[in-house]
């Protein structure tokens, strides 16, 4: 599961982009930044991909905000054979493919 969360720290905004394993609550990878830009998600995904073992095909769920509909996000998902829990905005599978 992934999303971007905004925190206010010392009158400034800080953004956290983690990916969590819902099986055990482990944070697999995360990235922080001062702006909610696509590179925040890109760097988090790159860190998560580095932890994959050959043959792993994790299911990744997001809220389908613009970061997760970005063409580069979709390209990264296809290249690493991630399975998106929601293939498009407002489309939900009851079972992964």
TrEMBL record:
Cleavable signal peptide: none
Domain Integrase catalytic stretches: 2-76
Q: Supply one GO BP term.
A: DNA integration
Known InterPro entries for this protein?
A: Integrase_cat-core, RNaseH-like_sf
Q: What is this protein called?
A: Integrase catalytic domain-containing protein
From what organism does this protein derive? Vreelandella sulfidaeris
Recall the taxonomic lineage recorded for the source organism.
Bacteria, Pseudomonadati, Pseudomonadota, Gammaproteobacteria, Oceanospirillales
């Amino acid at each position: 599961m992934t999303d971007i969360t905004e925190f206010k720290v010392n009158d400034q905004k800080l953004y956290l982009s983690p990916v969590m394993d819902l099986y055990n609550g482990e944070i697999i990878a995360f990235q922080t930044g001062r702006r909610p830009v696509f590179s925040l998600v890109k760097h988090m995904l790159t860190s998560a991909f580095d932890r994959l073992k050959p043959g792993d095909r994790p299911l990744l769920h997001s809220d389908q905000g613009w970061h997760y509909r970005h063409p580069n996000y979709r390209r990264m998902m296809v290249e690493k054979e991630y399975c998106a829990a929601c293939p498009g905005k407002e489309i939900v599978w009851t079972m992964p493919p």
